[in-house]
Design a protein that fits this description.
Length: 186
């Protein structure tokens, strides 16, 4: 079974099995024969064969104000790490499902990178999150609403100032403030 796949480097003592699979897991004992032709124990080891990881899919699901980006992968004993625009994730980004799902505000656009790794391999994928047309229109509408509200506030302030000035002028022109033009002594 191992005759064609086993390789022993006599100078280093390193033994390897080519194309190892899960069926190769187990306890191994390596013996050698000394110059006296006696069988001697060289080493014992328990070998675990781990499948390499491979990202198979990365997808996003919009749910209201948030977007959930999820990764699917093959392999085992994997560690999943996410990055946003090449840097660490801020606290507002939430990880769940053993770090397979990342939930972010839909306004946090940019490139999300996932790195899946195990002791024998690593695999990564990118997801580019952009604002949808509806979100762009919503943000544009919000900006227009804020500007319109600000302009209305300025208009109301101008009308109040105009009304106050007009009232003061009317008061100044009322008969109570006029002097009689009668006999002036000279």
């Amino acid at each position: 079974m191992y005759d064609t796949r086993i390789n022993l480097n006599v100078s280093t003592g390193c033994c390897s099995i080519a194309n190892a699979g899960k069926s190769d897991r187990g306890d191994y004992v390596l013996y050698f024969y000394g110059t006296d032709r006696k069988k001697r124990l060289a080493t014992q080891a328990t070998i675990w064969v781990i499948d390499p990881v491979c990202v198979t899919n990365i997808s996003a699901r919009h749910n209201g104000e948030n977007v959930s980006v999820s990764v699917s992968y093959s392999g085992e004993e994997a560690t999943v790490v996410w990055a946003w625009n090449g840097g660490a994730l801020p606290e507002r980004h939430q990880l769940s499902d053993s770090n397979k799902t990342l939930t972010v505000p839909s306004t946090d656009t940019g490139t999300f990178t996932v790195l899946v790794s195990n002791p024998v391999s690593h695999s990564s994928a990118h997801y580019n999150l952009t604002l949808t047309e509806a979100e762009l229109q919503s943000q544009t509408g919000m900006i227009i609403g804020i500007i319109t509200g600000f302009l209305l506030l300025i208009l109301i302030a101008c009308l109040v100032v105009y009304w106050i000035v007009k009232k003061k002028r009317q008061k100044m022109n009322s008969p109570m403030y006029s002097l009689p033009m009668g006999n002036i002594l000279t």
